[in-house]
Amino acid sequence: MKESEISVKYEPFKEIIVMERTSFSTPEDLARFTAVIAGGKLAGLYWVDGVVFLYFPLPASTTAVAKALIETGKVYWTFVGYSNMPKYAPTIETKEKMIVPVIDISSDSILIKVAKWLKEQK
Question: pTM for the full model?
Fold first, then answer.
């Protein structure tokens, strides 16, 4: 196959299925949780439209998950932790002096929908 015969196609997920979600009362609580579960490794949070969050996708390493992704466009997130954070800030510092980076990913159309869904959760 020649390079000129290669096509590039964008095909976003059709559905994100969240298996567990936890709302944290403050961004600092979410940052503390993130720092603890990362076990000293650098971990960051995403910010979109007033919501800060992290998620864990179910790896597509099993046949069933890979099949669901390819055939139906469904992706599974095993956990989403989130908190309201009206104004973007590049880091969140906890009272224990843990500093967690925050990435403004507002340009991602899929994550905009995720943020909107999270805001609607009670």
Answer: 0.85
